[in-house]
Design brief:
Elements (H helix, E strand, L loop, with lengths): L2 H18 L2 H14 L12 H13 L10 E5 L5 E5 L1 H12 L6 E4 L2 H6 L7 E7 L5 H9 L4 H8 L1 E7 L1 H4 L11 H18 L4 H10 L18 H23 L1 H15 L39 H17 L11 H16 L6 H13 L9 H11 L2 E2 L5 E2 L2 H21 L18
Antiparallel strand pairs: 1-2, 3-4, 4-5, 6-7
Helix pairs in contact: 1-3, 4-9, 6-7, 11-12, 13-16, 14-15, 14-16, 15-17
Length: 444
């Protein structure tokens, strides 16, 4: 083996190890890719272990995560070639992060003469795109003052690109993702081409900075274990949240001081798990639904019926929230501020309804998102907070312990399940959440 080849392999090993660790970690990554990555499980054009390993090594050497479709697109085509390219999302975010914002892209579909000039046929599809970097707009007036007309000035500053699809390619069943037209994908190709023409492609250090800025730098292979069937956007978000939770648990185990501080925070939050006196300037509205009496059931009996379906509960809450807003409801007592009740909701859901669940934080976020449209409890306003707080209705038992209303917890679990269903469908047609829509070049 030649010395240059040995040096190249050593360099690849070093750069790969810097992303996912040494051989043992890379073996874990290999298993995670085979289990989770769509590109490694394509039944039409399957990859062998050597091809998967090569794609992993190349990704890791560039600082990319081969499990993240928002960073890199990998696929095998009908000719047996393994294709590897940076994703549109990564390119767009790189331009935004390092070069600034740009104006809304202006697209133009090429006509017959323009197609012919590019060596294309009449039934092929091509779009050109132009845009300006916002930081360059101020230079337009300078150029006009220097004697150029507006059209000349713009042409000197604008950035352009071209996206093309042959007729046979655009007619393919899987050319564009579900819910998108072939033109949508060709426009993405044009925008990507424009960015590459002007700025080139990101370096490894650029990619590493983007991963740090996006909270993806600490994601490990095991954090992708539950992302099957999710869109690329939702998969990356879940992996990021899983990594944060894993690191938190690891720090609790490794750092006694951190654990002691966290335990004190939990105790303080648990002390708020009850409906404290609510000094308020106006009456707050919440239509209570009488809870059905608890009947002792036989083991084979059906589960207790919910007081409200998730949709019914959301509608009732929205109605009560609007009533409170119209009355100008606020928490006015400085000794019982809004934050106290927000913390109580956090404790009631995480420490009550979802107590013991490793994903209690995610479940709370899903419940508050479904009911109010806001994931973070700390983003709730006073009208939303009082409605959620009264819904959970924690009470103090004879043993001095506070517990959340049983009926509310049943509803919370049902709301979480419904939120997961809605989140899974909401991402299908969003521009950034479309499966395979991140790739401007992928031919299927």
């Amino acid at each position: 083996m030649e010395t240059t080849e040995l040096v190249t392999r050593a360099q690849e090993h070093q750069t790969a190890a810097s992303l996912y660790g040494d051989d043992a970690d890379l073996a874990e990554l290999f298993e995670a890719v085979k289990k989770v990555a769509p590109w490694a499980n394509d039944k039409q054009y399957p990859m062998n272990n050597a091809e998967i390993g090569l794609a992993i090594r190349r990704s890791a050497a560039m600082g990319l995560d081969p499990l993240n479709q928002h960073e890199v697109q990998i696929w095998k085509d009908k000719r047996g070639t393994v294709n590897f390219q940076l994703s549109y999302t990564l390119i767009a975010e790189w331009v935004r992060h390092f070069h600034g914002e740009h104006t809304e892209p202006q697209y133009h579909r090429l006509g017959s003469e323009e197609l012919a000039a590019e060596g294309l046929q009449d039934n092929d599809m091509a779009f050109s795109v132009t845009f300006l970097m916002k930081k360059d707009i101020a230079s337009l007036s300078t150029l006009v003052e220097a004697g150029y007309d507006a059209r000349q000035a713009r042409s000197m500053l604008e950035i352009g690109g071209l996206g093309v699809a042959r007729a046979s390619e655009a007619a393919g069943q899987y050319f564009a993702p579900a819910g998108r037209s072939p033109a949508w994908k060709v426009k993405k190709r044009a925008l990507t081409d424009a960015c590459r023409r002007k700025f080139g492609t990101p370096t490894r250090s650029d990619i590493e900075e983007l991963r740090r800025a996006g909270g993806m730098a600490n994601v490990k292979p095991q954090d992708w274990s539950d992302v099957q069937e999710l869109s690329p956007h939702d998969a990356a978000a879940l992996a990021k949240d899983t990594a944060m939770h894993r690191e938190h648990q690891e720090q609790l185990t490794a750092d006694p001081e951190y654990k002691a501080e966290f335990d004190e925070t939990v105790k303080a939050a648990e002390s708020l798990m009850y409906p404290a006196p609510e000094p308020q300037t106006v009456d707050a509205e919440f239509t209570e639904v009488p809870e059905e009496p608890i009947i002792e059931e036989k083991p084979t009996a059906a589960a207790p019926k919910l007081r409200n379906t998730p949709a019914q509960l959301r509608d009732k809450m929205h109605a009560n929230i609007e009533v409170n807003r119209s009355k100008g409801f606020e928490y006015s007592d400085p000794e019982h501020p809004l934050g106290n009740y927000q913390k109580a909701i956090i404790s009631n859901l995480e420490g009550g309804c979802f107590a013991g669940d490793v994903d209690a934080l995610d479940k709370r976020h899903a419940v508050t998102w479904y009911l109010t449209g806001k994931e973070s409890t700390l983003d709730l306003d006073a009208a939303e907070t009082v409605v959620l707080h009264k819904w959970l209705n924690a009470t103090k038992g004879d043993d001095g312990q506070w517990s959340v209303n049983v009926g509310a917890c049943r509803e919370a679990h049902a709301v979480y399940a419904e939120a997961m269903r809605e989140m899974g469908q909401a991402g299908l047609f969003d521009e950034e959440n479309v499966n395979d829509g991140d790739d401007p070049e992928r031919p299927f």
